[in-house]
Amino acid sequence: MSNNDDIQHQDALALFRHALDSSRLGKRHDSLESYTSSVGRGSELDKEDIPKEFSLVTILCRNEDTQSDNTRSSLSILVGKKMRGFGEGFYNCFGGKLEKDLGEQKHPAKGAVRELEEETGITIPLSIMEESFVGTINFTFDDWQENRAMRVHLFCVFVTSSADATGSTQNQNANTINIDPDQIRGCDEIEPVWVHNSYDLPLQQMFADDSIWLPMLLHHHESSIGVNLKFDAWFHFHKGGAETNSILHYHIQRHDQDLQKNAPKQSAKYNLEKKLFHALHDNHIHNPSIKEFKESWSFANSIRSFMKEGNKMTHVLDVAGGHGALAALFLLLVPECESATVIDPAVVKGEVGVKDAWSEYWGDKRLTYRHECLRTGLRKELDKIFHDNNQNISPTNVLVVACHACQHLTDETLEIASEYGVNIAVMPCCQKDHKGSWKGLSKRLAKSNGNKSNNSQETASLSFGTIMDLLTAGKMMAWNTGLQANVEYVVKMKLMDSAITLQNRIIMCKSMQRRDDNSNDEEREAAHQRLALAYRRAHKVEKVEKNRIQRWRNAFNESFENILPGLVAGFCIGVACSHIMLRRK
């Protein structure tokens, strides 16, 4: 939401007499990055916190003869008072949980049609419901351990009563549905109520987010007939849920579309990254999540930059790749890449979604899934590339990747892939030290760094994860790694932006044809000669010192031999004189 949009929203909100106080509506963020940075853990809809999916339908009807009355809205809105369950006593629009078994999570409009008919008796054709899609509203909570994240698929449908059906429809939305007022009926869960002046909406008896997006939606349709409002919204609630009913942070991103002009989407102005992201959104695909999409994009580009010299990456194997977004990105970012295969024993939600959203961008290239364990599946795929194809494919043109692979998965991926001599890139997580020696070192380094005095030399502190990743990289640099496949590895570590993920160390191993033995022997011989020369120089100084000491010793011996007879004669004369003196006494 831009500053101009915010001003318009404040103007619209002022018309609604029962809106919640602004102190309960939280802080507005201009960008999704700012929002997610402020919210932190609660905004990450990752595999550990898959949001519950819901539909929500707003039913509107245009009023007649309200142009001269500024206190009266030109719109009526049908809302329901919850009689039991979540939000009891609150007013809300109509909808409910999307049933996976009915295929509604992949096709939310189906769930919206079903829930609306169950709660109001109003039947909307599926095609009309699909065209009435507004966007998604994402909810996270400060007490996310108790309140699971939610994603709501919002629809807005215009209706008119049978009594007005013969009148002019020029000022009505093209998707207006004619209904019989007597058709509307409630159920034991919700009681439908018409608010004929939408400015009188009981927003103080509705969830806090309704005081933000609902006035924006109504104000838009007050003044913009024929122009659909499209937006996505993110709301992060304070602890306490419906009891506190207060927002901490929110962000709204608008995507208005002119229906009268049937304006095409402006995706041509986007770069490839934004095109792909919006392709997921336009197809209502939420797996990969925003975080996973950013991780995959950064990971793929880092590897592409490192491998660009010589290694073409015609075939990519993505270990534990889940939905396949990372594998698909190699098809899109690497012109030479012909095929990408995801190896994962689990059937992950999002496989079909990635293909549906992005396949138009990669043309005849192939994205496939192999639902099998790494230990057998990776070997079978590598054997198929090297033995089943008639083409003579070099190992240096095959890439194996594993993003966020735990320690044993990282180790096994590197071990198997290096046996075949292919390129490898991993981003480890959940590092383990099975023998325990390195974890102890990490603790000692941290303790040494934390307890140093002001006068002592500073000691660097390395986290346990960093130490294990450095050891993994060192293992790939060993002289015998890749020996079986007659390759050697050039290894590099790169850090992904920590704002995307904290487990951000990428280990990239480029496969190079191992040099012949003669060149290695020549290098070793040259190194030996240099070492021998240095040794002789060092010990030549020591030999000079020994010679000098020997000369000093010889000179002393020679001098001593010359004076020895005189010393003996003097000693004898002295003894004789002593005897003579004693006798005289």
Uncertain spans: 42-48, 164-172, 258-268, 452-459
N- to C-terminal distance: 130 Å
State the shape. elongated
Number of strands: 20
* Beta-strand residue fraction: 15-25%
Main sheet properties: 11 strands, mixed
- How big is the Rg? 39 Å
Helicity range = 25-40%
Q: What's the mean pLDDT score?
A: 80
Class based on secondary structure composition and strand pairing: alpha/beta
Give your account of this protein's structure.
Helices cover 39% and strands 21% of the residues. It starts with a helix and ends with a helix. The chain has 585 residues and is of the alpha/beta class. The strands form 3 sheets. Strands 1, 2, 3, 4, 5, 6, 7, 8, 9, 11 and 12 form an 11-stranded mixed sheet that branches. The protein has a 7-stranded mixed sheet with strand order 16-15-14-17-18-20-19, with helices on both faces. It is built from 14 helices and 20 strands. The relative contact order is 0.08.
Summarize the structure.
By secondary structure, the protein is an alpha/beta fold. The chain contains 14 helices and 20 strands. Helix 1 crosses helix 5 and helix 10 packs parallel to helix 11.
Spell out the blueprint of helices and strands.
Blueprint: H1 3-15, E1 27-28, H2 32-39, E2 52-62, E3 75-82, E4 91-92, E5 94-97, H3 108-120, H4 126-131, E6 133-141, E7 150-161, E8 177-179, E9 190-195, H5 210-223, E10 227-228, E11 231-237, E12 247-254, E13 257-258, H6 272-282, H7 290-307, E14 315-319, H8 325-333, E15 339-343, H9 351-362, E16 366-370, H10 374-388, E17 398-405, H11 407-420, E18 423-428, H12 437-450, H13 464-477, E19 487-495, E20 505-513, H14 517-584
Parallel strand pairs: 1-12, 2-7, 6-11, 7-8, 14-15, 14-17, 15-16, 17-18
Antiparallel strand pairs: 2-3, 2-5, 3-4, 3-9, 6-7, 10-13, 11-12, 18-20, 19-20
Helix pairs in contact: 1-5, 6-9, 7-8, 8-9, 10-11
